[in-house]
Amino acid sequence: MSELRPQLIAGLGNPGKKYEKTRHNIGFDAIDALAQAWQISLSENRRFQGIFGEGFTPKTGKIRLLKPTTYMNRSGQSLQSVASWFKLPPESVLVIYDDMDLPVGKIRLRLSGSAGGHNGMKSAIAHLNTQNFPRLRIGIGKPTGENEQETIGYVLGKFSPSQAQVMSQVLDTVVQAIEVGCEQGWEKAMSLYNNHVVPL
Fold first, then answer.
1. How many CA atoms lie within 13 A of 73 on its CB side?
2. CA 39 – CA 192 distance, rounded (Å)
3. CA distances from 69 to 55, 136, 154 (A)
4. What is the total count of domains within the chain?
5. pLDDT tens track for 21-64
6. Tens digits of per-residue pLDDT, 182-191?
7. How far is CA 47 from CA 81, 120, 160, 198, in A?
8. Is 24 a catalytic residue?
9. Which of 47, 48, 62, 63 is nearest to 9 (CA)?
């Protein structure tokens, strides 16, 4: 698959105060970290059903940042509205989201793939009409119990203080990985960061 420079980076999460800083919202936190690093101001955009901003990466030119405010399960609506408006090919859309199958401290970049049970990604794939777009998963670890209620409580819960410290370093790593991806390509970023671990 040919590799396109990212033109839109979207982080998945849920809008509203009660979801702030929860595990499931780490995609939103990643967009905030990128916006801060690149000095891009974000504001509500009704057309795009999200918090949106445009700016420039240090070396590779124009970039758009998005936090869908449709709630997680309908994230794809917001992604599609931005991609359609700017006529962006799906391969130029990078999606950032939480992953329970990765431990806290790890990230994983991929150029394509299934949703892996993540409802936000199911929506993104359905609305972009392809699985062929890059994604960056941020590990949030697994709950100890296996039942659905515990899982929901876990993803909508907040990181422990020690995990929160690790996650702030992880977000720095996310910014670095994306900057490498923008400048040198995703293959290079994957080789550098997919086995990188921020220790607890």
1. 0
2. 25
3. 20, 19, 21
4. 1
5. 999 999 999 999 999 999 999 999 999 999 999 999 877 789 99
6. 999 999 999 9
7. 7, 19, 36, 38
8. yes
9. 63
Instruction: Compute CA 166 distance to the chain's CA centroid, rounded to the nearest angstrom.
Output: 17
Say whether pTM exceeds 0.70: yes
* pLDDT tens by residue, 68-124: 999 999 999 999 999 999 999 999 999 999 999 999 999 999 999 999 999 999 999
Q: Is residue 47 part of a domain?
A: yes
Instruction: Examine residue 200 and state whether it is found in any structural domain, yes or no.
Output: no
Whether 34 is in a domain gets the answer yes
Would 58 be classed as within a structural domain? yes
List residues bridging with 109 in a β-sheet: 136
Choice among 24, 118, 127, 196 that is catalytic = 24
Asked if 7 and 92 touch (Cβ cutoff 8 Å), the reply is yes
- Residue 138 is part of which domain span? 8-193
Q: Give me the CATH number covering residue 69.
A: 3.40.50.1470
Distance in angstroms (rounded) separating the CA atoms of residues 105 and 48: 31
Output b/e per residue, 157-191; b: 16+ Cβ within 10 A. Answer: eebeeebeebbeebbebbeebbbbbbeeebeebbe
